[in-house]
Write a structure and sequence with these properties.
heterodimer, A: 256 residues, alpha/beta, Rossmann fold, 6-stranded mixed beta sheet, 4-stranded antiparallel beta sheet, 10 strands, 40% helix, B: 314 residues, mainly alpha, two-stranded antiparallel sheet, two-stranded antiparallel ribbon, 78% helix
Amino acid sequence: MTFLRVTGLTKSFGGVRAVDGVDFTVRANDVFSIIGPNGAGKTTLFNLLSGLIAPDAGAVILDGEDVTGLPAHQLATRGLSRSFQNLQVFFNMTALENVMVGNHRHTARRFLPCLLGLPSVRDSERRTRVFAEELMHYVGLERYIHAQAAAMPYGALKRLEIARALATRPRILLLDEPAAGLNPAETAHMDALIRRIAEDGITVLLVEHDMHLVWSVSDHILVLNHGRVLAEGGAREIRANPQVVEAYLGHRARER
Amino acid sequence: MSNQLLQRHGGLALLAAIIAAGPLFLDNGFHYNVAILAGLNAIVCIGLNLLIGHAGQISLGHAGFFALGAYASAILPERFGFHPLGALLTGALLVGLLAFAIARPILRLRGHYLAMATLGMGIIVSIVLDQKVDLTGGPDGMVVGDLTLFGQALRGNLAWYWLVGALLFVTTWMALNLVHSPVGRALKAVHGSELAAAAMGVDVFHYKVLVFVLSAVLAAIAGSLFAHYNGFVTPDEASFIHSIQLVTMVVLGGMASIAGSIVGAVALTLLPQLLADFHDYEMIVFGAILMGTMILLPTGVVPTLAARIRERLA
């Protein structure tokens, strides 16, 4: 079943077509990876899909609904959330509060009840806290529940962003280089976490440079080059595609 | 959770005790005068701190909102026969609408640009109050009538002390509720990362407008009460210096600290009274305090002390 359909998506920055007529479809519950050399347009594509920037042309259909050009917070309401390549953690909060922000749309957040501290708000806060604690356990950060986000190591912050995105109760999760800068043990942990998220019924869109991770977790792979789709297919197919190997993995990879 | 709740209620109880015990230590009219002004400043600073400290947006024009509230209470009863309480509420409503109207273009700006825009807004208010002589009395200012509550004119220091004390308590209570709610967390998220906040479903712009309007309305209410208490208003209330004083109170007391707002407001209301001889250099003193705080206590007095105490206990 198609969950996300992208057609003719295009975005230019001052004459450079960062994303140029990209088409693809993502099946529900797949781990769908987008790979390509630096500057291929992966991050721009993610920013378009998550509503941080608006496309010049093309359409994004999420679960049958045209969501093209909707701002990020409205996409979050429709079950799309993301993590960021260069961390966007709320460093002015504790780790747990970071995750609680993710649950914002499901909290009692009307202004007057919040101002008056009504019991409905306190109940909602208690539930949000419990849910956020569960997610901290889920991503393996239970020891950081009471930590200030600013005091946490880099690898933990990567997982914190995922916990925070999961708190939005997404149906599709966009992970922008979740393994960048992680050591091998942390990368193995991330591998397991991504599989678990997919098993729990959340569609995962992954941009990643760590090819071991990509080969390991992906059901389907899209290769971008110069803002266009170079190839698309299953992991094995892509790995054997000489065009991809040439453009992305380099000449020497073929010899190995 | 319960710990946090305990801290919150403990803080409120402490504030109530201090306000209640005030008259035991206030000897004369001058003391009361300082206490009442400190309370009014604290109300403005609590709102301003939600904007600056929590949501991370700067305003160098809040004296403008304060002055508009003050002039609403001066003009509406005098010229249009409003009940003083009606004038206060109308002033708050009008300032709220004004803040809402200018929030859209202003809050699209960031950092220095936002500072410049709010600065400009304050200056415009100041000029209008100065120039609309037929309505405002111009630079000479105008006399303000009594505040009447339940058919009784509010007179005397003690009555004003209790009114301002009660209002400060309610404002503090509401601000604490807000800070410890999804709304407060959303404000802090906007401060932390607008990109991430949006991706988590927080309508960033909505919350910026909300907190801007809320802080403007609190400033207007405090301005109205000031006008009645003082019995006289001048365009000076809208001056840039006044806006800087308010920001200095917030920074000194501590960013994103409600208790800090009160401490900062009390300290910097008291200081000019203690340094009356330096009146001509007041701006220099405030500037020095602002710079000194940012260099030596970047998180402000109350958060710094709180961290020290936590370290001792740990």
